[in-house]
Amino acid sequence: MRIDIITVLPELLESPLNHSIIKRAKEKGIVEINIHNLRDYSINKHRQVDDYPFGGAAGMVIMIEPVYKAIEKLKSERNYDAIIYTTPDAPVYTQKIANQLSTLKNIIILCGHYKGIDQRIRENIITLEISIGDYVITGGELAAAIITDSIVRVMPGAISDETSALSDSFQDNLLAPPVYTRPSEFNGWKVPDILLSGNTKEIDKWTHEKSVEKTQKLRPDLLI
């Protein structure tokens, strides 16, 4: 898979995309990630990519021309399966969407910034809009990093034990069950006996029951 990320602050993506699972996936050739500075496509020598909004509202808006030029440049080199825009006023991202995106070959992620981008880009070029939650952050770079991480970690070969990703929260609309490790007793606190029994069938049953119980308590909306 190839992921191209367009941003006005490429330095914000340097650390999140160069460590841990993503780093190993890049080294294995599972994913190629390229960061593009939107200012390289600016309209003047001042590297301007934003301007005041029509109508007199507060804040600045990313202009249509730099975004159009950046995306058209990438599209001239290959076909893209999805062109994603990160923005708080979009449907909230889910594990289901991450799973679907992980099956694609080439995607572009355009990071929102300031008060957003010219609406004409959203109407004519963007194919998928994503919000990472009902809150506002300074820019879409962290959202792009989150989306990238969630996509890469479910790709075959990215994690040494692929069954680990399949048992994560939200994969089956349930939260992950409680987990324990050694020692089996600490400070009088004991690991549930069932997990020490070696009875795989009963452990699986207990694990599912605890997932349902946890989901009902913390995220009952997932069970609707």
Describe, in plain words, how this protein is organized in 3D.
With 224 residues, the protein is α/β, with parallel strands linked by helices. The protein folds into two domains: 2-152, SPOUT methyltransferase, trefoil knot domain (Alpha/beta knot, 3-Layer(aba) Sandwich), CATH 3.40.1280.10; 167-223, tRNA(m1g37)methyltransferase, domain 2 (Trp Operon Repressor, Chain A), CATH 1.10.1270. It contains eight helices and nine strands. The protein has helices at residues 20-27, 64-75, 95-101, 119-124, 141-152, 162-166, 193-196, 200-218; strands at 2-7, 32-37, 50-51, 61-62, 82-86, 106-111, 128-130, 185-186, 189-190. Strands 2-1-6-5-7 form a five-stranded parallel β-sheet, sandwiched between helices. Strands 3-4 form a two-stranded antiparallel ribbon. A hairpin with a 2-residue loop joins strand 8 (185-186) and strand 9 (189-190). The mean pLDDT is 94.
Provide a concise account of the structure shown.
By secondary structure, the protein is of the alpha/beta class. Helices cover 33% and strands 15% of the residues. It is elongated.
